[in-house]
Amino acid sequence: MKICIISYDFWDYDKYIVETLCRRGIEAYHIKISSVTHSNFNERAVNALSKTFLNKNLKTEKRQKYVLDSLEKLGHQDQILVLNPDTFDVSTLEKIRKYTDRMITYLYDNLERVPVEDKLHLFDKIFSFDIIDVQKHGFEKITNYIYLPYTPKETQHPEMDLFYITSYDNRRVSMIKLLAKKLIDQGLKFQIMVIGKKSWKHQLANIFIKVPKNLFLIFSIKKIPHNDLPVYYKNAKVLLDLMREGQYGLSFRVFEAMSLEKKIITDNEAIKDYDFYNPNNILILNESISNIDPSFFEVPYEKIPEEIYYRYTLDHWVNKIFDLDTKR
User: Fold this and answer.
1) Model confidence pLDDT, tens digit, residues 115-128
2) What is the signed CA dihedral for 256, 225, 60, 92, rounded to 10 degrees?
3) Where does the source fall among the domains of life (predicted)?
């Protein structure tokens, strides 16, 4: 069987799908469009002028051509999974479809945030992690997945109480400021990294008048290599997960925490509806963030039953997405 994954893959999650398929003896390929950028300053300048005066993004066109050229070399695929379908125009998706018997998509973002309704008729199956979209549009419900290897808590020796890394988002930054003050008041040790182009403003001026010794709050425009993240995760007892506005599904942070047996603090109340939910392991923040309690950091993590854990593994995920052997 030949399967191709087409995605932007900014955070390098999708490569794990390909690795999992290859381990199953499937010919799997990844066309990663985020690797296609402007070759030089002249290309960037020309594209800026094109977007301004012609309302035409040459980089987008370059990426779509790259996908079609790659498929021409790879040939016919039994299945093609397109992530981030908003990246492509309808005509490109129609051409992609000619290379496969089954074209499917998984919507990483909800339709409220990234509307792609005009393109969904081209797919044989539509998966979504967002419960609102699933209920409204009849998509197939599936969560994100555990991609990290299982690492028991007994093998880790965290020095931090809490760790969080996130892309820049105004809502999240506002909550981080409030949460940080709560953690400081309780003498908890934490590290928070906010990554994104808008972070430069916070690099110039610290948001706290006096920075306590136990506080590590970093704003950066430079992306942290994905392979480095587990080192940070393992050094904390608890991982933080804050939603974007309009987000209702579970982020990858939840599944990273599961694989490393880390507790989670989140503002996503929907997590209560999942079979792995355990109030001992998961603290759901109230609006005022007044329910942070130091005892949550001290009470030991309770292991998730194996049969429940498996339902969120990438191995189970590819079975469902690609309709593979599901005997288990």
Assistant:
1) 999 999 999 999 99
2) -40
3) Bacteria
